[in-house]
Amino acid sequence: MTAAMRPAYAADPARSRGRRLAEPAAPTRSEFQRDRDRIIHSTAFRRLVYKTQVFLNHEGDLFRTRLTHSLEVAQLGRSIARSLGLDEDLVEAVALAHDLGHTPFGHAGQDVLDACMQGHGGFEHNLQSLRVVDQLEQRYPDFDGLNLCFETREGILKHCSRRNAELIEAVEPGGIAMRFLHGGQPSLEAQLCNLADEVAYNAHDVDDGVRSGLIELEQLLEVDLVREHWRSALDAHPQLAGKRLLFETIRRMLSAQVYDIIDATRAALAAATPAEADAVRRCDKPLVRFSADMRARSTALKRFLFANLYRHPQVQSTRARAEEVLRELFSVYAGDVTQLPPDFAERPDRERACADYIAGMTDRFAIRDHQRLTGKSLF
C-alpha cells in the first residue's frame, strides 16, 4: 500500500519518531523494513530455533519452537494488516522480535530468572526483548543493539511493570514506557501483533498437544471454538479423519478468528474515528480486538490448554528439570564469573550479566553447559 493510500491511523515509516541514534535513510527500504531486516539477521533471532515453545526442541522435530511461533505470528499479522490498511512491515518486525528475550525452556526459564533476580531488578521477558534490541546485540560499529525505530520498540514492549516503566521513562521521557504510567495504547500495528500472538499460540498448541498425545481431539471438543469448526469440517468432508481432520479444524478456527478481528477492528475504528496514529495511542482501550463472543471463545480455549496441556504431568516434569538447570547455572555463574564469557564477566552488574547470558541461551546449550559445570545429566 502506498503512502497516499494508507489510512491516517496507520503507522507511517516516513513519519516515524525515529531511532535513538539518528541514521541516514536507506535508499531502497522504509525505516520499518530496515528494522525487520536487522531483526532477521540478529543472533538472538537465530537462537529462537532452539528455544522451547511448549515442548523441548529435542522432544520432536515437528513441535513449534520460538522461531516457528514468531513466523506464524508474523504471517497472521501481515494478513490482517493488509485487510486493515496497516503497515505490514512494522507488524512483521514487531512479530519477529517479540520473543527475542525469551529464556530457554519457555516460561519455566522466565520464572526461574525472575526468582534469581529478586533484589536485583527481577526479570521480565518482554523487557528482555527490548534489552536485546537496545543493548545486547553487538553487530554495528557505532552503537550497541539494533537501533530500531520507536514504533518497533514500542511494539516489542508488550508488558512492563511500573517500576521498570519508571526506569525507562527516566532515560526516555515521553517514550515507549509512558503508556504503562499514564494510560494509553501502542500503535494499531503493535496491538495487532499482541492479538496475532494469542491466535497463533492457541492454534499451534492445539496441534502440538494432539500430536504429542498429551491431549485428545475428543477432549478438545469440550471447547466451543474447536467443536464448531470440527463439525463444519466434517459437514464439508464427511470422510475426513485423523490428522487431516485436525488440520482442517485448526485452519477453519484460524480463519474464523482472523475474520472476526478484521470485522471487530473495523467497527472499533469507525466508532473511534482516530484521525492519526497518535490518536490511537490516546485511546483508553485497544482498537484491534475480537468481538465479545470470539473473545469469550478464545479465553475458553486458553483455559482448556492451561489446564490440560501446560499443566500436564509430563510437561510439568520437564519444567521441573528445566528449572533446576537454570537455577543451578545462575548459582554457578554468580558465584564464579570466570565461568562467563569475558564480555559478561567484566560487567560490574554481576547478577544482571548472569541473567542476560542465561536468557540468551538455547535449550540445548543450557543443558550442555549445566552438565559441564555440575556433572549432572537431567535430560
UniProtKB/TrEMBL annotation:
Signal peptide: none annotated. SMART domains: HDc. PROSITE patterns: HD. Residues 1-32 are annotated as: Disordered. Residues 66-202 form the HD domain. InterPro entries: dGTPase, dGTPase-like, dNTPase_2, HD/PDEase_dom, HD_domain, PHydrolase_assoc_dom. Keywords: Hydrolase. The keyword Cytoplasm does not apply. Residues 1-13 have a biased composition (Low complexity). SUPFAM superfamilies: HD-domain/PDEase-like (SSF109604). Belongs to the dGTPase family. Type 2 subfamily. HAMAP family: dGTPase_type2. This is Deoxyguanosinetriphosphate triphosphohydrolase-like protein. It comes from Pelomonas candidula.
